[in-house]
Amino acid sequence: MRVMTVMIAAVSLLTACSGMKQAYPLLPVAEYEKMVVGRLDADYVGNDNCVSKCHAHDKIRDFSRLSVHGEQIKPETGLPLVNCESCHGPGSLAIAKVEQNRKMFGEQGNRCDSAKLLELKKLPPQAQSLICLKCHSVASTPALSHWNTSTHALNELSCFSCHKLHDGPQQKVSREKMADLCYGCHPEIRAQFSLISRHPIRERKMDCFDCHNVHGSETPKLLKGTTPKDLCGRCHMEKSGPFVYEHGDVTENCMNCHVPHGSINRRLLSAAMPFLCIQCHNPGHSGVLAAGQKTLFANRCTDCHSAIHGTNSPDNDGLGTMRR
Length: 324
What we know:
Elements: H1 2-20, H2 29-35, H3 47-53, H4 63-66, H5 84-88, H6 92-95, H7 98-105, H8 125-139, H9 151-154, H10 175-183, H11 187-192, E1 197-198, H12 228-232, E2 245-246, E3 262-263, E4 310-311
Antiparallel strand pairs: 1-3, 2-4
């Protein structure tokens, strides 16, 4: 009986695990396009009708001042290129009974029937992003060219996760708010930027977007550069070379020695010296080991080898050590 109970429990556990590993394939783009079309039996009524019927009571009443989209006017007609219905779908059915409800219920009836519009919050993230991409896939190229395969999109984030379209005319996330926004999903990075050696994110001299392309990238970790060294060299040009004598371990990836966000060691090093250096170099150097002993001195390798990123001057003993 006990064996049978264990077997049933094991089968149940395996079934639960297989359910956790179940794949949820993405739908074809055509299916998401159908979701964002809106009601086919509704007509477009324009911003003025949307605002006067439903939004005269709230802050959305002045769309042109509230959103940068409201400032985009077609010169030959004077009509907006983007309006409420560009995102929310045709609104004639949504406002059809507003006047009648207002007479019956007073201010409580002063609302449109939002169920007749696109219910944006209920759409899957891919469909939410498609509402923006139908304009921005062209207007924001190449910034959004990698969005659909980016780690953010694959983790079911949408444009609405970061951009709040009714909070003000500036739709981009400001430098003051960007780090806090990213920390919402990356709390471990917040902790790293609290360490003694770090990049100046807290001082607002940098932001996440200086190094990462949040909309997608061809490189790992959404990095902007073609290689980590290419990215780091944009600020640390004096260390990027080219040099006649290069430190072989740093020719492509600075993160072989450095931690990008924050470290307990000076200069963002991943380990303290000499322990960082002896991971690759033989610790039998006379300056590292006391004569006839196996005890490490506390000397830093850079006390002698100061040009650790590379140099154009050969050393005197020809052993490849990098001395200034």
